[in-house]
Amino acid sequence: MILMLTTLACLGVARAADNHTFEINTPLIVTAGEMFRVEFVLDTNKPDDGSFTPPDFAGLDILAGPTTSTGFEFQSINGVTSQKKTCTITYVVVAQNAGNITIGSASIAVDGKRYTTKATPIEVVDGGAERQQQQQGRAAEQGNAVQNKVAKDDIVLRLNLSRTKVYKGEPILASLTLYTRASIVGFEDVKLPSFNGFWSQELPVDNYKPQRETLDGKVYDSQIIKEYLLYPQQSGALTIEPTDITAVARVVIQNARNFDPFFGGGVEEYNVKRNLTTGAITVNVEELPAGAPASFAGAVGEFTISAEMPPAQLKANSAATYTVKISGTGNLSFLQAPTLQLPSSFEAYSVRNTESIRSTPQGTTGYRQFEFPFIARAEGEYDIAPVEFSYFSPQKGAYVTLSTEPLKIDVSPDASGDNRPAQVVAASSKEDVRQLGSDIRFIKLGHAALRKSAAPLMFSGTYFALLAAIVVLFTALYYRLRKMIRDSKNTVLVRNRRANKVAVQRFRAAERHMRAGDRQAFYKEMLHAFWGYMSDKLNIPVADLTKESIREELQRRGVAAYEAQHFTDIMTRCDEAQYSPSTSVEMNEVYTEGVRIISHIESIVKR
Predict the structure, then answer these.
(1) Tens of pLDDT along 416-465?
(2) How far apart are CA 330 and CA 344, in angstroms?
(3) Cα end-to-end distance, the chain, whole Å
(4) What is the DSSP string of 141-193?
(5) Quick one: which H or E segment has residue 566?
(6) Which residues contact 449 (CB under 8 A, 6 or more apart)?
(7) Alpha-carbon gap, residue 439 to 376, rounded angstroms
(8) What distance in Å separates the CA atoms of residue 278 and residue 480, rounded to the nearest whole number?
(9) 16 near 71, Cβ under 8 Å?
């Protein structure tokens, strides 16, 4: 068994090692005539020899490269080790003309498997404009240079819809996307739309990675910050309210006055706020066409139907289930159970529903399964009509009707005849269990023989005994509550009782610092536990406590002299070790002795 688990673990590691990443690192904006680096990074240092295929550098002049370098990084944090190997292929290039250029895809192979980067756009700005920006940066003291560092269109917020013209019930993918050409450090005053007229479901966006996109002729880093599936619930022109966000951008300004030839520096950082809005968006929702089939109940999308039929041969009074499964993509959450027509001699129960639904950017996908339990009461041959399910297909622009196969059931007589005992069958309705075969009970004839089954409880001996017990219990509770109220007003008693509890909490905090290897925090927490415990136990403010007074008070309250001395010795040891080197073994000894001595004092000093 151990060998098998080890083999599976090794296979898992090997499989994980087969998946690599190959990415490109480039600036977002460069200046015409200025050199910059283009790096292709592979997360392993052993690519296949000669497998690198360079990209198309149209619009760029290659000054140097390709240069290949490998790296290795090793980390060990709290006993957990990790390592990272990389292979970096570097080009030094220059763009001569302003405009937008695109670096094509590059590829490389590892163990015969090829990995490819995405085509990456870069914006090349004119050198004169760049010098003007630098001059504005040097004029930051004049007041408006910081604001000018973040242009009006450097940060853009848009709500991208997969479609703006849909049928009622057809899903829409709404992606709230942030396009940036500046460093964003936070957001304020976020106001999201309420999606009136839509049924909305938020999708996770953790797996989305930032992309580089060209928008209105400029290159941006784009990131989806919210994503929703919207299902319009009414027809007509529906308006999605604007999304308003205040983005905080970080601006770095060069300042020659603050430059130090030894320590460096010479830069100042500012936060610039920009109010962003998506604006209102109108979605045109068409009403579903007229002439819907009778089996249509509002399903919109693309679906299939399957059925699990009950046995064709049944005994009278036996139970069976007809199961219908509807699978596909669409508004599955709103799907209703189809109709199953059963003969009047069949006893039907409530439909049971199971589902497996998953929300994706393409819509809600999965299945819903409907189980129709029933009991065949009478013998004979019965024809069960097919179950029909209709939906509207936006792709076809028409209604589609699906159906199961027709079924013929032969119900044979019950082998036990009319004398068959009652049969208990689990039901799926509100009744937990129902008896079958005993609908009419035998009515007993003759004179009723009524007799007294038990003496009444009222005014009996048991009645007075219970009454007396209630009075005694109430009296005891009354005096107990009065004592608790008096004790709660006694601040000395309250502090005394909580002393051990507070000390235990501080010991737990010290133990966490000890495990983390934080020596200074450990000894600081231990000292807080000792001083705080003695202050609460002896009802003396911490400011008035000394180690000598602690020894005297402990001896006066019954603690042996050597134990009192040992307690203050531990406090002294913590004072000295707080700012001196110590090992984890010493911290463990101090912790163990501290817990023991507090427990010992607590058992002796009760008040």
Answers:
(1) 554 343 343 444 443 443 444 445 444 555 566 666 666 677 777 788 88
(2) 35
(3) 59
(4) GGSSHHHHTS-TTSEEEEEEES-SEEETT--EEEEEEEEESSEEEEEEEEE--
(5) helix 561-577
(6) none
(7) 15
(8) 65
(9) no
